[in-house]
Amino acid sequence: MRKETQKVLILSLLGLVSVNLAAQQKAKRDTIKNIDEVVVTALGIKRQNKALGYSTETIESEQLLRTQNNNWTGALEGKVAGLKIQTAGAGPMATARITLRGDVSMNGFEDQALIVVDGIPMNGRTVGSGTPAYGAGSGGDVPIDYGNDLNTINPDDIESITILKGPTAAALYGSRGAKGAVMITTKSGKNKDGRLQVTLNSYTSFDSVLKWPDWQYEYGQGTMTKDKNGNYYYSYGASADGVSTGGTSSAFGPKFNGQYYYQYDPTVGGQSKERQLWRPYKNNIKDFWQVGTTYSNNISIEGSNDKTAYRTSLTYLNNEWMMPNTGMERWNAAISVDHKLSSKLKANVKLGYSQTKSDNLPATGYNNQSISYFMIFQNPNVDLAWYRPIWKPGQDQVDQIHPFSSYIDNPYLIAYEMTNSLNKKNITGNISLNYQIDKHFDVLLRSGIILNDELRTQKRPWSSANYLKGYYREQYIDGFNFNNDLMVNYKTAIGSINLTATGGASSQYEEQKTQNYYAIGLKNPGVYSLTNAQAQDFKIPTPYDKYVNSLYALLTLNYKEKIFLDFTARNDWSSTLPKANRSYFYPSVASSFILSDIFGLKSNNLNMWKLRASWSRIGNATEPYQLENYYSVSSFPGSVEIPNLYANPNLRPEMITNIEGGMDFSLFKNRLTFNATVYQSNSVDQIIRNVPVLWETGYSLRVINSGEIRNRGVELMMNAYPIKNKSFSWNVSANWSMNRNKILSLPAEFQGEPYTMASVGGVVYYNAVVGGSIGDLYGYGLMYSPDGQVVFGTDGLTAKPTAMKKIGNAFPKWRAGIQNEFRIKNVTVSFSFDGQYKGMAYSQSHHKMTEQGKLEHTLAGRDNPDGLIVGQGVVQNPDGSYSPNTKGVAVPTYYADYWRRANVETNTFDTSFIKLRDARIAYSFPKSVIQPLKITDLTLAIFGKNLWMWTKFPLFDPEAATLDNSTITPGVEMGQLPTARTVGFQLNVKF
User: pTM (2 decimals)?
Assistant: First the structure.
């Protein structure tokens, strides 16, 4: 029987091991023969994995396409040790914050990995809508997740993703790679037989809400008001039963027990003529949400011959999100051509185009105009259908229906009238020329460009809570990112030593401009144009431009393929630093020892034993415009304002020193592989922007170099084939990682006081203190007696502290993930779990819904005969001793006080979780069925994502974060939108 050699992808969390499997029917035993895996490293240089002195992981395209994601980053969740994907739970765009090995900077959660596509770095910047997450009643707007350049990358076009976790791995990218790098290689059309291949990949998926808060539907609207007979009652407006109780947002009213009250009647737009049944509407929030749908269709054509390889693809994705009238659509087109111009000269060209459009994206945050705000304020006795007409009779586009409070906008007004549109176009181009001078020398020239053009609009109708006369905004964002690389490579052998030397230069220029036009108040309702403005406002374009020029070198030595040694050196010149400090140099060294070869230990049980170690020192520049003071536009026409930040003309680059060590094992004919890594990085000369100065200087803040942060961590990865034969195989992969962050020093200017790196809503503060960690949450909390009991005042309310304290940390103690794949003849079943232990998050929604009596835990005490609750705790006596608290307070007052907004402690919760992150069942039709149809592969699959979750976090999702303007801030839930549970179907056909 003839032998067929197939390439088998062993998908695992420790990276994909590319192997050749000789599938022989007569083989007496199953073997997996390991060959040297080739991975893409910094600057697109391909290296053997065994030669690397640092940890990398690779994810292949099959894993990315197992479950559908509007943003490809979702496919990485839980599958790479040390990598965290954080989104703000803000809608279908799902902008991701990607971090590797924790945060190393005190600049407000800006530590994001570099994204590199086919050797061209992307900027990864997010331009926000300019509004904070907390803004209820402020008259302002709301944050909107418009996405960034990562959203434009099409997962159907990705061949593989290599994760360069630490500064050493990404050292050749300089300051841009100081926080690690995610290397994306797109498909090029090369195939083994050179024939033309057409591939159709089609998805259909359905989204529903994964988890709801535990709303109570036993009591309705009110504040425990009693009538003249001493009974609790309800009245919408004053009535024969008593004064109005329908103007509150609280649900401390009468229990639903078959009684009748004067209530709101939508047919008259006011109080009902007769008393109506007092009843709950248990789906009056859930029914607002719909089943979301996503359709994605991709077609690609590829082929190759001895000189040329090509691929072209077209993808259309349409998403209708779970919130009515929201969603997006995206077109992606790509073409790739590899061509041998001569025996020595090769050319590669890749072009990509994407367009993302949306008539409406949802707003997030705690603000009158977000749907999250409505869900918090909706009362159990209010029918959702009462809001559906949106406008009062005869008042279309003039006066909305919101019968219970002018501060609570109609949910259908939010969905259908308060729209946030997007039209974003993105063009990427990449050309490289490789010339082989002789057998030792070759030269690579590579240029890439990324062009963006984006239009956003926000429409706010008349009678909205924050804009009584309406509002309209146009935001234009355009920019480009231009990169050039010139590399010379030299390879030779000196006896038993192989030597490779690479030298090169690169330049990067990035420019972006943002323009905003405002119509503040609309002359004619429902007409959204700048010419319809009652008053116009125009902001001078906000620029963002910087350049970095670099020289770099890489020297690689290996002795008999047993001992490998790498040296790198790079010098950057950054425009964001002053002339005297603009140039900064940093080196790295990495080593790899194949101990199994060195000591002759190879056997069937021990296939490889590798020791690796590395050291690097990486410079990191800052954002532009930190060196000089710039005026900003004033709200008064023709005038400007002085800045409050005093610039620093003597800034130095941050420096990150990283050491890493690890071992890799391959056992039992490569059926079991195991990787262990330990690392430490120290970041010094932190560029800190919010150092206070005396007001007499004319400024309030300044930017300086100071402070040191240390990160230590452990990463463990395992991949195994417990069973593998021709009819059944089982592959299991797992990873575990932990990171410990410590602040070693702070600027002397703080004089021992904490440095507030960021804050959200004026209640949660991320304070840096010596000995503390990035992500420490500070705020006001409870006071305790020496034996740990809560202290109350003589008024029966909690004692109020005068100082904030540490509540917890936004980041978990550790993270882990496990994936299983079973192949039973033509059926493949795969699923993965991941989770985290500990970590804390503050919930604004929990505070407000508790204060208003909307959650089940607020039912306690309502049936007390006197309507009072006595808090469990003690009262401090005049002599300093403590005695039990006996003072009762009204039920609404107790909940409003104990869980008040400023009490960060009682509204902060453990974010431990376990998720069934994804699952898939696929059937590949046998060749006997598809060959007569001229089809080479036909696969049908059903898949799911976020199918199940265990957590004690009380709101939607423990992976909570807040979109605060453009910053994704972990550890705070501030008007989070629901997380989707996804079920879908996939068809993959190859001709």
Answer: 0.91
**The tokens of 218 are what?**
């036993």
Q: Three-state SS across 725-772? A: CCCEEEEEEEEEEEEEEEEEECCHHHCCCCEEEEEECCCEEEEECCCC
| Rounded Cα–Cα distance for residues 242 and 249 (Å) | 18
What SS3 class is residue 990?
strand
Please, what is the angle between helix 891-898 and helix 844-851, to 10°?
170
The CA-based angle 692-694-696, given to 5 degrees, is 145
Distance of alpha carbon 98 from alpha carbon 239, whole angstroms: 57
Structure tokens at 137: 């009643």
β-sheet bridge partners, residue 739: 713
Residues 6+ apart with CB under 8 A from 990: 197, 198, 199, 200, 935, 936, 937, 938
* Neighbouring-strand partners of residue 680: 659, 712
769-800 residue pLDDT tens:
999 999 999 999 999 999 999 999 999 999 99
Fold of 39-210+292-369+418-775+810-839+912-990: Maltoporin; Chain A (2.40.170)
Q: Is 845 helix (H, G, I), strand (E, B) or coil?
A: helix
Residue 664 CB coordination number (10 Å): 24
Pairing of the two strands 645-646 and 701-705? parallel
Let me know: does 775 contact 768? Beta carbons within 8 Å.
no
Angle at the Cα of 227 from the Cα atoms of 225 and 229, rounded to 5 degrees: 135
**65: its two tokens:** 């396409």
pLDDT class of 38 with cuts at 50, 70, 90: confident
CA distances from 673 to 16, 413, 431, 610, 818 (A): 11, 56, 38, 11, 14
Q: Give the per-residue pLDDT at 137.
A: 57
> Residue written as tokens 């009462």?
386
**Could you tell me if residue 886 is left (phi over 0), alpha (psi between -120 and 50 degrees) or otherwise beta?**
alpha
HSE on the CB side for 259, CA within 13 Å? 17
Summarize pLDDT for 419-448 with one digit per residue, the tens.
999 999 999 999 999 999 999 999 999 999
Please determine, for residue 7, whether its predicted confidence score (pLDDT) is greater than 90.
no
Q: Residues near 267 by Cβ (< 8 Å), separated by ≥ 6?
A: none
The helix (H) or strand (E) run that includes residue 463 is strand 441-464
CA distances from 860 to 216, 863, 870 (A): 11, 8, 11
Q: What is the pLDDT of residues 240-278, one digit of tens each?
A: 999 999 989 999 999 999 999 999 999 999 999 999 999
Binning pLDDT at 50, 70 and 90, where does residue 27 land?
Answer: very low
How far apart CA 234 and CA 226 sit, in angstroms, is: 9
CA 150 to chain centre: 11
Q: Strand, helix or coil at 579?
A: helix
Cα(651)–Cα(656) distance, integer angstroms: 16
Question: Six-digit token pair at 133?
Answer: 């997450």
Rounded Cα–Cα distance for residues 310 and 336 (Å): 5
Residue with tokens 């000269």: 345
Contacts of 905 (CB under 8 A, 6+ apart): 779, 780, 781, 782, 805, 807
Q: What residue has token string 């009748």?
A: 260
DSSP-derived secondary structure for 151-219: GG--GGGEEEEEEE-STTTTGGGGGGGTT-EEEEEE-----SS---EEEEEEEEEEEEES----B--SB
Amino acid 3: pLDDT: 36
Cα 696 from chain centroid? 41
Residues 395 and 338: beta-carbon distance below 8 Å: no
Average pLDDT (539-559) is 88
Q: Is the pLDDT of residue 699 over 90?
A: no
Q: How far is the C-alpha of 559 from the C-alpha of 551, rounded, in Å?
A: 27
